[in-house]
Amino acid sequence: MALRxxxxxxxxxxxDLLIVDILDxxxxxxxxxxxxxxxxxxxxxxxxxxxxxxxxxEQFPDAYKAIWDFxxxxxxxxxxxxxxxxxxxxxxxxxxxxxxELLAKWNKRExxxxxxxxxxxxxxxxxxxxxxxxxxxxxxxxxxxxxxEAARTAPPRENGGNQDIKNLSKGTxxxxxxxxxGANLSLxxxxxxxxDGEITFCGAIEMxxxxxxxxxxxxxxxxxxxxxxxxxxxxxxxxxxxxEWIAFxxxxxxxxxxxxxxxxxxxxxxxxxxxxxxxxxxxxxPEQAYLLLGAAPIxxxxxxxxxxxxxxxxxxxxxxxxxxxxxxxxxxxTQIDPGIxxxxxxxxx
Length: 349
Fold this sequence. Notes:
Elements: E1 17-27, E2 41-46, E3 63-71, E4 74-77, E5 84-86, E6 90-95, H1 100-115, H2 140-147, E7 156-157, E8 160-161, E9 173-177, E10 186-191, E11 201-207, E12 209-218, H3 221-225, E13 232-234, E14 245-251, H4 264-280, H5 286-295, E15 299-304, E16 312-318, E17 344-345
Helix pairs in contact: 4-5
């Protein structure tokens, strides 16, 4: 990927806001031969339970994947037939570097969480992993010191990080808090498309690609705008426009019938499970439906967060992505050929 800052990093100080404009972002063009051959594609994966799981890991403990082929702006898959959609291309991960004090805060609070159930599978959080830390040119004792405290990049944090916001597309402007001299902006994890939540964990369509940026600075911007522990952004205007949707709701009641108090995480899980159950009536297997919700441009919404004891979450699927009618009717659901299905790897015991 190409990173092309247009302002000297040395001008950026702690307390500033870093302005990042996404000028362009896209996949590596497909080539028939040469070093880029076969790059016009991406993949979506369901992580196995013992490898981190996903949003619905209790119902889907095994690993699956789907390959998506890119045709210009449109993606389709041999593993999830009957659908195609335009990509909303974006970086899943982008952010500034933490200060030493902020890093210590991350490790303390996440370590405290892990300690409440250290043997949980999947784990509650991911501690530093010195054996595989990527630390550039550091060697010797300094390498070992930094490796022992370097934060894993899996979660989003105050600096931005792995937020997986599908709307960080071309034309987006992001404002990141700055915690160290130079800001140390970094990014990666490019996605061709993604549903809100990236619910399978590797739920977006992961791809090889490029990104062009312009950066600038608002001196003392963190205090000026009260942006001290979060990034704010102004989305671009390249989203695919859908006018018709089929939506599913869920409430904060477990599959076993246990009532939870305004648990929006649970209610979104239930909405996704309702959508998956519905799509299986048309011939998809549950894993294909789950992969589709991770990759397609679905919208997730918190629809009710005050009506005790149940929160209400909703998942909206654009109907135009299907090659067939997915609306309910008296004639019953159209039956599609599910094709070869998604390749599976059983969760390791």
